[in-house]
Amino acid sequence: MKKPSKNESRNQDQNPDQIPLNKLQAKRLANISNIDSKLLINKSVAEIKNEFEWKIDLELLFFRKVCGKVVKRDPETDELLPVPFATVYVEDTDCNLMGFFPGKSSWSWLFPLDCNREVISTVTTDECGNFCVYIPRFEIDWILRWRKQRFCFPTIFKRPNLRDILDDLIPEPEKVRIPLPQPDPGPILRNGGLTLDYLKQFISSKNIEKLSVLQSSAELGGSSSEIDQLYESTAFNKQVPPPFPREFRELSAANKMKELSAHMAISDKSLANFNPRYFIGPFKRCFDVSMPVWQQINDVPDITFRVTQDIDGDGTEETIYSESFFDVRWDNTHISDVTLEASQIALTSIDCDQEFHFPCGSPEISFAGYMPLHNPASPIPPYIDANGYAKRVNRPHPSGGFYEALPETEATAFSPFAGYFPLFGCNQHDDAQYYRLKYIHTPENSVTPLAQSTFLGHSWHVFKSGLPAHHVVPDADGWYEILDPDIGWSPEKLLLNWPTYRYANGLYEVVMELANSAKAVVHTTASIKAHIDNRKPQGIFTLLRWNYVGEDNWKTVGLNCPVIQRTKGRAIDIEVSYEASSDHLRSMQLTGNGCGVNGILSLKSAVDTVAWWHRNGADNYEAKTAVYYLAANMLPGAYGFHLVTDSRAFNPLKSAGLESDWVLNLKHIWKTTELRVSVVDI
């Protein structure tokens, strides 16, 4: 087993005010308290408080709680999965950096030359990858003071998030706006949807689409947590290499350090540890002061993270996240949660928000995600029906209105499952040592079941703090070893981690077989049913027309690069027709967006022309026509329409379902369709 270094041996179970200060901490506290660092080193905050109570600002000796999550991006689904029971090292860091500030770019890059790191705390992530640490207030205060005392440093040492990009791109709207019927276009849709394309260079298309959907379907009093989480995410989800000039690239490739030094106007000695392939960024460039293209910045303080995990069960933890810089956007008032994205070698668990426990009786498949697969006794409304549909989630609205209050006891939905979710259940039985799951599939729009098959090739890891991760792998016939429940593996009672998107859509009847040591079946459970549908609904625009207000001379415009040529200073109406279809269509919403902050399309037709909800389980097609008004003083330019069509299919691995006992609306599969229109004055 790897022997921990002196700095790594700090006890994560100690109270934070009992941990002795290291050299860097003592130096930082000394810089802002006028006390010799030699008197502070190896003393705890509690000791310093007692010894220097009236010689130091006691506020500096408080602690700030910083929380975060260690995740790994699934390369297949792009989902962020939790990394459980990993060790997070919190480090004091002082670095000498080389700054690259290209003259015509809005961005800058930093290159570490040499760094000094000292561990100040360690913590283990929980089964959902979450962690919290306490950081002395003087550490944060010193970083903030150091940056504020220097031109541009508060800008170039702050990793830009998506909110920063949007704030620069989209001007703040005027406080007084024309009231709009629901749904109101979100900020990324206001300029005709062109912002959507621009943002794709920063975060994934899937997350951009998700953000636009969340904004366009936001409800008064609804949770904004998902939108806020996307806003706070790092603007660049992939490394963006700096735009080195051609001469620099040639000199660097040839390792001509003297010529490179002259080109950068930096001494040879400073470039001893310079590696052009090891960069941090991009960061927002500062334009407040003039600066050379290349500039060395020394002794930059930060608090960074390193994460390790035993990925091969040998007792030694491997590094899965390292060399981090500026992960935390230090702020006097609010510190957002930190997301540390581990490398692909990290071991992950199922997506989870909280611990999930249930008692066991006889063997059965009990839950799909967190949703029960067995109905309670009457008259409590059912969770699922004989065709595998969830009855409480995404219930129909008899009026067809998007917003409609329904009795909580009403369970009239026909909602299928979708996505990647676990099947939980109980597999303890006399003489049973192995189990496997088998299914009968009835394809979508068919009544003929296919032959019974076995779930094959699905593996996952389970975890227990203090033990190596256990890799659950089936044999060639799909048999899994029944784990000892007394060990307390997490997630507990996991029978199968089911990637339903790899399977054909339709009805699945699933049973569990239990077998003895010879893998002879000793018991078969009753079947459970789950209807699967991972298809996106279809949403299309079918017609676009416009007319001068007060006239009756509608002009049809083609849907391919449509252009409306209006007489300057005249108000117009724009009519748009659209439709949506799907085997399990839930709803659709249309928003009109405009040019700039105040260039808006005002809805002229009724609200039900732009928002619709299915009325019953067979209601899988809808067509609508909406009319928007463009005032005479609205600018020419880019306008557009944003259509969101939603499936009733949902992923049952949502803690919100537990909180509401599954009487709620969930959005998991959707499609967005854009129609952009150019309005020009003639």
Summarize the structure.
The chain has 682 residues and is α+β, with helices and mostly antiparallel strands. It folds into three domains: 7-160 and 279-341, no CATH class; 364-380 and 419-532; 538-681, Immunoglobulin-like.
Task: Jot down its keywords.
682 residues, five-stranded antiparallel sheet, globular, 32% strand, single chain, alpha+beta, 11 helices, disordered N terminus, six-stranded antiparallel sheet, Immunoglobulin-like
Describe the structure.
By secondary structure, the chain is of the alpha+beta class. It folds into 3 domains: about 5-160 and about 280-340, no CATH class; about 365-380 and about 420-530; about 540-680, Immunoglobulin-like (Sandwich). About 15% of the residues lie in helices and about 30% in strands. It contains 11 helices and 31 strands. The strands form 7 sheets. Strands 13, 14, 17, 19, 20 and 21 form a 6-stranded antiparallel β-sheet that branches. A hairpin with a 6-residue loop joins strand 1 and strand 2 (about 80). It is globular and about 80 Å long.
Q: Based on DSSP secondary structure assignment, what is the total number of beta strands? A: 31
What would you report as the Rg, rounded to the nearest angstrom? 30 Å
Low-confidence stretches: 1-11, 173-182
Report the average pLDDT across residues. 88
Number of H/I helices: 11
What structural class should be given to the helix and strand makeup? alpha+beta
Main pleated sheet: 6 strands, antiparallel
- Overall shape: it is globular
The quaternary organization reads as single chain
User: What number of domains?
Assistant: 3
Strand content is 25-35%
- Residue share in helices? 10-25%
